[in-house]
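hey so i finally got around to running the thing on that chain from the lab meeting. sorry it took forever, my laptop kept dying and i had to restart like 3 times. anyway pasting the input first so we r on the same page abt which one it is
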Amino acid sequence: MGRAQRNKGATAERELAKLLSDQLGAEVSRNLLQTREGGHDLNGVGGWAVEVKRHETLNLTAWWEQTLRQAQRSGQKPVLAYRQSRRPWSFVVRLCDLCPSLTGDCTAQLNLDGFCLLVREQLTWQCFTCSADPDQLQQIRGLCTRLGVTTNIPAADQAQPNF
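ok and heres what got predicted. didnt touch it at all, straight out
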């Protein structure tokens, strides 16, 4: 990776850290040990291992795999934050981190406000009694739709997708 790419990545991390700090009212900072230790990009986001990507060409599958590895290493929940030029930040989280009894690779995509709401209110989300029951999955899918959260929970007649 060249110096220009590293600078662009560091700038994106600082930008997102400031936005999250302002919205969450907590100190969010860059993880300056990430290069040496192979860790996530931001610290201070309430148990979430944030991987930040700022690219014009999206490579969500590879980025998500990296995010999962780094979160597992740190023992935190994975979140991928990415954006393109003149676009808002998007965040990808696993639905099983919102509802621990869900299984599979289902994810949700949130905007900045939605992710900050999730971080602030993550205990509220855990109040749901979830299971892999198809009816409950469809209820969660409907709730997410009403909240404007994009998910990859399949319709009742579809197979479970991979990210």
